[in-house]
UniProtKB/TrEMBL annotation:
Protein's UniProt name: Polar amino acid transport system ATP-binding protein
Ranges of residues in domain ABC transporter: 5-249
Xref: SUPFAM superfamilies: P-loop containing nucleoside triphosphate hydrolases
GO terms of molecular function: ABC-type amino acid transporter activity; ATP binding; ATP hydrolysis activity
Repressor found in the keyword field: no
UniProt family annotation: Belongs to the ABC transporter superfamily.
Location(s) in or outside the cell: Cell membrane
InterPro entries (UniProt xref): AAA+_ATPase (IPR003593), ABC_ATPase_HisP-typ (IPR030679), ABC_transporter-like_ATP-bd (IPR003439), ABC_transporter-like_CS (IPR017871), MetN_ABC_transporter-like (IPR050086), P-loop_NTPase (IPR027417)
Phylogenetic classification of the source organism: Bacteria, Pseudomonadati, Pseudomonadota, Alphaproteobacteria, Rhodobacterales
CDD domains per UniProt: ABC_HisP_GlnQ (cd03262)
SMART domains in the cross-refs: AAA
Record-linked PROSITE patterns: ABC_TRANSPORTER_1, ABC_TRANSPORTER_2
Species of provenance: Paracoccus seriniphilus
One protein family per Pfam: ABC_tran
Amino acid sequence: MNPIIQAHQLQKHFGNNHVLKDIDFSIQKGEVVSVIGPSGSGKSTFLRCINQLETIDGGYITVNGEIVGYRRQGNKLYHLSDREIAVQRQAVGMVFQRFNLFPHKTVLANVIEGPVVVQRRPVAECKAEAMALLETVGLAEKASAYPAQLSGGQQQRVAIARSLAMKPDAMLFDEPTSALDPELVGEVLGVMKTLASMGTTMIVVTHEIGFCREVANRVVFMDQGRIVEEGSPDDILKFPKNPRVKAFVSAVL
Ligand code: ADP
Ligand code: MG
């Protein structure tokens, strides 16, 4: 089976700082992969490269078999235009630590914004789908509320629904619960667990080891710009081989 997302020998620098080194990675349809590792190890940059929020300096990334940022014509590759990049980026949804909802729009208006304005789909159809998504994240009754009237956990669940409304083939989560008060973390992880059980392809950068253990099919450990170990949650969390993984896991468990 072809992977939904694949990275091959990915390299990324910020000036002299080589932040992603020889990253080889792939995720199959329906898989949930958790990415863990110390702060500054390159986890966010990796997700941002997949979603073309950063350019890459070497190697390549494919989404649904298409090389990200390029169009193939014959055996030549051409850079995509900004407009083409915008279309390609719709294949992957991203949820950030901070949920940037439009404050002056209702929950429903936030969720239908992308499908209506960007994808130019019929409003009635988008509304019906948005209501179903709000049902999935447990917020159908908040459809006409404004973001400021919601808790942080509720806002993040709306942000997840908004991202799903674009019908992406995969979802990237970058520490989606780390800006939340502790009592609100569970409701967001619960929604992510539901998405996983619905077969959503997900890459989840998280410090929530419980989520990795219960929900992830595979855990990837990054350190200093490299994937240093990957395996099943048991492999990585119970029986890590790499000493840096051992030290990290024993510190967070
Ligand atoms: P993580 O998400 O694992 O904490 P990041 O991907 O945010 O790590 O950062 C990896 C490295 O890249 C760090 O050294 C960080 O300082 C650097 N970095 C990240 N974003 C930028 C940027 N926009 N400009 C310069 N350096 C950056
Ligand atoms: Mg980060």
